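Sequence and fold:
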Amino acid sequence: MAQAPRSPRSPRSSRSPRENSRDRGQRDENEVVDKLVHINRVAKVVKGGRRFSFAALVVVGDGRGRVGFGSGKAREVPEAIRKAAEQAKRTMVRVPLREGRTLHHDVHGRYGAGRVILRAAPPGTGIIAGGPMRAVFETMGVQDVVAKSVGTSNPHNMIKATFAALDNCNSPRSVAARRGLKVGDIVARRAGGAAEARE
């Protein structure tokens, strides 16, 4: 008695779950964008002359509200950048965004001598920020924001002050849950305050 021919297995079913999860992890890592903010060359005087090393400051983000920063040191520039990027990926935080393009409200941040002011902006404003802060917003996926640094110009302190400000960002949903109100009440109150400010 002749046996019925087997139906060919689809390529997706022939792969193990572990391989699928590995590909998914690689795909997630590939979606992360990193930007080099600053490189510092350090010279150490030794018996035979000067020995140079490099310190890199890198910001990474997925363009959808997750962002992180890290620093790395090495004898070569590419190795320092790689170390900084790995540290930044480990310390990524999620920032709530309004309509996926700007902040929910104005915030202030401070770290050491660095002080920054971040303000939400209407559509079409663009990223009005300088130096290291622009790299943070570009990797995070913010499209409209107005930022100002009123303290030190040290990139490390500016980045840390910016992240301190982003840590204070709250979405209407989290504020409503903390106060026991509805999200509509929080949004209506914000819209009323903006109308009064325009008048």
Summary: The radius of gyration is 23 Å. Confidence is low (pLDDT under 50) at residues 21-27. The longest strand covers residues 33-46. Strands lie at 33-46, 49-61, 66-74, 93-94, 107-111, 114-120, 127-128, 145-149.
